[in-house]
Structures are given as C-alpha cells and as structure tokens.
Amino acid sequence: MNYEINMHLDTIAVIRLYGELDHHATEKIRDQISRTILQGSLKTIIWNLEKLNFMDSSGIGLILGRMRELRAVNGQTIILNPSNTMKKIFQFSGLSSYMMEGKEQDAIMHARGIVNG
Amino acid sequence: MDNEMTLSFLAVSENESLARMAVTSFVSQLDPTIDELSEFKTIVSEAVSNAIIHGYDEDGKGVVTVHAVREGDVISVAVKDEGKGIPDLKRAMEPLYTSKAEMERSGMGFTIMESFADHLQVESEPGVGTVVTFSKKFLSVKMPQIS
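Predict the joint structure of the above. Result:
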C-alpha cells in the first residue's frame, strides 16, 4: 500500500492510492493522511483510485472519516475512477453521488467550480 | 469435490492480504474475470478482517482458519475463528452498524459479503467463536476447446 498527496492552490488535496487498501493498510496510513489534510485551508479531497488494485469496507471507513473532518469546513469529496467492484461498494454505502470518472485535472476543475467548454 | 485447501494464521492484520492471495490462487483454475475475482477477494477480506478485529481484538494469538472447497465452478469458503463471538448477530448484519466506530469501521462488511456472495451464512456463539460460510459460482467465459 502506498499513497501520494498533491496539493492544489492549498485548498484541494489529490490523494492517489496504490496497491491494496484493507484494514491493515488503512490503520497504517490514516493518521498521516488525516494530519496532512488538516493543515492549511483544505476544502476538497479528490481520492484518485485509478491505481488502487483492491479495496474493502476499510476504504469506506477511511473516506467517510475524512468526509467527517471536512464537514467542519463545508468541504467536498470526489471519488475518482473506482473499479467496478469498488463502485458497487460505494453504492451500497450511499456514496454514489461522490463518484466521478475522468482525468485528475477534470476533477480539480470540477472542484473549483469551472465547467469545461 | 474437485479441490480443497485449508489455511490457518494468527490474528494479525497483515494476514488479511495473505488470505486474499491464497484464495486468489485457489480460484485461478476457474479463469475468473477481474470483477468476479475482486468481488470474491472482497468477501474473504471482510470475513477475515472481522475475525481478526472483532473475534480476537487483534491479539496476535488467536487462530483464523480459511477452508475452501471447489466443486465444478462453485467455490465454497468457511472463515472460522474461536474468538469472542457476536452477541447480537441480527444487529451486526444491519448496514452501517459497527461496534467499533472509534476505529472507523464502516459497518458495511456483512452487507458487502451478502451482496457479492451467492449464498452466505453466519453462525456465532458468544465465547465460542464465529463461522462465516459463503459460496460463489464463477461464470467466467471459457475458451472453446479445440479438438
């Protein structure tokens, strides 16, 4: 399990997850991710799952936990490019409306409220 | 029965990936599709995580056993622990209910298992342990045989 966090304009964090996200991995990365995103004036988290090979309900816990932290600042969450199985897991968990397909740049534009065209 | 395997390991979280890897190899002879395989791995991951986290409180001493059987294109799996058991099974299986909210457990484990398995059964007795049994049929498209 690996991850990368890239900040855009101090308000948008793009978190790229790699490998397998299970209970073991979640326990290892949660605090670090949480600490990083609580710095500065964060408003949006974009979870880029394109390179994530596996996720179970631990991933739901991780994302819901960060959504809770963002709620204090009225922040938003985007779940980018989940696999078919992950899509189903997000649907069961009531997170369908946060999913998006496309390029990272499109998600960033979307988060900033810029519509293409 | 066409094949059978048993895997036992201690209740430490790093063994969650060990269990997934073992069952992935076990079903590989059925040529599963990517989606079939990832759903199957998810069920195993949920059941094994439950045993480690809830059955044994990650004590690193208790033993989790994964027993898998293949009959034709159906795989049946039993994930067993001899941990503390589930006092209220009906409640535990409700979507979003978790006894470990402080650990950010989502409470979606059983819902996911029930949705991805063709058949799922949970037996649990406080102080004795828990067995999660499930089966899944693999409909993967087979290449036509060339005679």
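Chain A has one domain: 2-111.
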